[in-house]
Structures are given as structure tokens and as C-alpha cells.
Prior knowledge:
The protein is an alpha/beta fold.
Amino acid sequence: MSLVTTDWLENNLNKVKILDCSWHLPNENRNSYNEYLSEHIPNAIFFDLDKNSNLKSDLPHMLPDKKTWEQNISKIGINNKDRIIIYDNSDVLSSCRCWYNFIYFGHDPKLVSVLDGGLKKWKIEKKIISKEIKNIVKSNYQANEIRELVKNKDQINKNIQKKEFEVIDARSKKRFDGLVPEPRDNVRSGSIKNSFCIPFNELLNENRTFKNRDVISNKFTQILGNHNEKKIVFSCGSGVTAAVLALAYSLINNKYSPSIYDGSWAEYGKI
């Protein structure tokens, strides 16, 4: 169950661990943590996507090492058997990247879900909002990396010839086609050879909920044909919206484990 509804969460607030994983593009001039302090879903704990990445890398949102992940997740009181619900207040659905990270580090996929529609839908429905900061009891989280769920640049390059998996890019079609400049400095325009494009926004409704499964399935069928028989790796600008596509695909293929090119175009297009 990759997604839960706002009504489901409202009825299970005290049975789950809730993470606010809001993250905003630098040019939006928004502070996710300050927004969390001013309003969040009751019992929610703030999950800093930037700080829970590899801080030694010059690339954004790269997976941290296993020990760092264990320390960070233990600090926010998450246990291995916890049922985790992740939401955001972001236009790029950063909660999906947090969902992917937990699965990569071995949390049971059945125990990790994203709130469909996020904080925006929760507020529209006038559900309860809080400013109270939850008291955290430190845990002893143990991670287990599932390394086949991440690809690096070398694997992406080799695949251009070997064609062992399909690469689908979540960026806009104009960015994918190299018609507009990239938002990050020192990154060229364009895309990975032989890759495909499904802009992540095309799988979302205006209220930021995911479109129904038939629409999502048709999108993948249009570019890949019988997608159930193919191995798929997702990419984007910095590894965030790739996870939106990965979650969307998990809704139509329950055997799929999310696989992402972690460096994405920020690495591949680096000048």
C-alpha cells in the first residue's frame, strides 16, 4: 500500500509514525522547517531531506551511507517495525523520495506509505492541524541496504549498449529535449541517450493526488508497450521527482521495487 488517503490517516493518527518531508526548490525561497513549526499534521516529525542525504557529495539528495542513515533515523525515533506515513507540502512531492529511501534501506515496503494529496489536501478538508512538537524517544534503527534499487552513472552508461533496463526521466519534456536551460549551475541541457520521458506532473491531479491506475498504466504503455515485462529505472534532475514516478509505477505493478539513478541529470549532465 504505497498510498494512504487523508481519511485513513485521520482514523489512524495514533497508530502510525508520521513524517513531514516537505522540501522546496531553492528558487522558491521557502523554508520547510519553519513551515513545519507553524503547522503540521498532529504527531508529525520533521524529516530534513537535505540533511538525510550524503553531505559529502557535491550532488544533491544522494543516498547517505548505511551508518549515517541508521543514526539519523534513530534520532527521530523510528523503529524497524513502525508503520510510517510520509507527507509533504511541496510541489515536487518530496515525500516520495523519503518513501524510496526507507525502502532502499530495508524498511518493509508494506509499512511505508505516502499520504495522497499531502498537507494541501489535508488542509482543504479542514482536518486538524497542530503546532505541537512531538516528544521523540530515540530508537536503535537497523538498516539493510538493497543495492539493486540504485543505479550509478557507470551502470547507466553501460546500459546504453546492453539495454538491460529502460530509463524514464521525470523532468519536463522541454528540459528532457534540451530546449530550456537547467535550473542548476554547470549542468548542460539534454537527456540520457535512449531514455524516455514521463513528466511527473502528468501523473498527478490538480490537488496533487495521484491519477487513477488506468491513466498511469496508459502513460507507461504509450512509451514502453508491455511495461510489466521490462526492468525500469527512474531519473530526474536530482533524484526527487524520479521517486514520484517510481511510486506511481508501484501502484500498477505490485511486484515492482523502486529503482532510481541516484545522481540523475545533476550528475549525468554535469559540465
